[in-house]
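ENTRY TYPE: paired fold submission
RECORD: A
CONTENT: sequence, then structure tokens
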Amino acid sequence: MPRKLIPFEQRLAEEQLADPIFREEWQRLAPARAFSIALLRYRAEKDLTQRQLAEALGVSQPRVAKLESGEHNPSIDTIINVVKRLGIEFAIDIAPVDREPSFVTARARKIGAVEHDDVALVVASSSG
């Protein structure tokens, strides 16, 4: 029987997520990646440079680059500032691991569900 070929990216992801240290960090930064995607989507939709987005947010261009990297969880104050200044929505719904998060809509759950060992987590955004 022939073996099923697995794409390199999938094999790499499986191997990395099998490492408990990597998996913990990957899960910890899930909100950062979702926030990064929201900023990148907004910037692309509005055809803005990082410098232009920084001006709109009242922050420096390096700060925008850091937020867009997805490698640092933003503070609640940062999320609020971005939401207020850009008019986008961003939601984080966290529940105990044995319960489904219920505050965020089904649509948001569909596009924003994040696998997490310790909690059930939904992160969603909209440029709405």
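RECORD: B
CONTENT: sequence, then structure tokens
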Amino acid sequence: MRGVAAGLAAAALLVACGGSGGGQPAGSTMVTMTEFKFDPSTVSVSHGKVVFWLVNSGTTQHDLAIRDSTGKTIATSELVSAGDQKEFDVNDIAAGTYTFYCSQPGHEASGMKGTLTVT
């Protein structure tokens, strides 16, 4: 019984200390957001599920939205607060060329956009 209790205590400690991650997921594509640009501004990925790791190095909230060639937005991340980072998963994206941009008012017009090529 003590062994089970000790094991549970150790597991709780690992969870409390963030022992299972918090960093960039393996196989993800990192995109850094600042005012008013993405780095890199040109991204190439394989079709299917795409995982982005969004890092906001700016001083205001940003997101990453993806628009297809018809002008339709197909996916938008959650807002990422200044200094934060977030995983953004896009399921089943088809091959093609897309525009990614920040959907916050005025950000895209200020140059916060890029090109996503899916092969």
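NOTES ON RECORD B: Helices lie at 2-16. The chain has one domain: 24-118.
STATUS: closed
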